[in-house]
Known about the structure:
This protein is an alpha/beta fold. It is about 30% helix and about 35% strand.
Amino acid sequence: MTSLNLGIIGLGYWGPNLLRDFKDIQDVRVKYACDLDKNKLENLRAKYHDVYLEIDAENMIKDQSLDAIVISTPASTHYELAKAALENGKHVFLEKPMAKTVDECSSLVEIAERGDKILMIGHVYEHNTFINYLKKYISEGQLGKVEEMWATRFALGPIRSDVTALWDLASHDIGIFTSLSGNKPVSISANGKSYEGKGKQSGSVSLYLYFDNDIGGDIRVSWGAPNKIRELLVIGSKTTGHFDEVAFDRNLTFYDRGVDHIEPDATFSQYRSKIRKGVAISPFVDFKESLKEECRNFIECIKNGSKPITDGEYGMNVVRVLVAAERSLKERKIVEI
């Protein structure tokens, strides 16, 4: 296969970015762009005169000339659209969250496998160059044993009507933590506050994930913060990695600072702790735009028949944690995953 015909469903907040980046890939033709809002379609008409603008997603999904469908619509529509696309012989790129239930995710994985189709979920941080540098640093043992991870993801909006801040924001860090630790969380504790938007929306949520390799993960997300914060700390036995996505420079820094635990000897009857204050290093990282890399990976997987990093199983595992977090919020207790 040398060239691919592709259609995009959903031109709201994220869809236009996907349209732009898929059009930039060689040997890919974005044949259709679909949205129920005619104004959104009209706004794209002058810029993308070679793209058919479509209101009816069903017509697009049934077009036998299309090889793949990209879905960037409200989460409540993900399952039905992805299911229809897969059953009509299309490869599918599906934005996160994959679906609203684990059963829906499992069904999509089964349909994709049965039809021998690529199903890729849009967890863009798996293609972030700083996160991947940090992952390599950990895998090489330079951080030591990962002991704890902290993530903060704050901003003033956008407020979404289809999912809560938990599903919209924390889904990123659940995926990142799972990837960096190399393990799935086994239980979760969650608390948060709701406010009125279009229906009750959870605007601020705090999660604590427990991993079976004695790693803890703390995630805090909010739609109501006055400033934008996107930070990640990974604390290791040797050093600590700090990723600040919105920093002007020095986005990734490694600190030779922490707490060393000294075992007792003949002199001391108890364990002691000693503060270590070493150097901080910010390595040069050859930055590549994450979304462009994600789009290229989807096309490469189709052409090569390779497995996406964020395949259906990956997306389903994140949804499984989100469902458990919702239960923890409601029942105010630690929930097994």
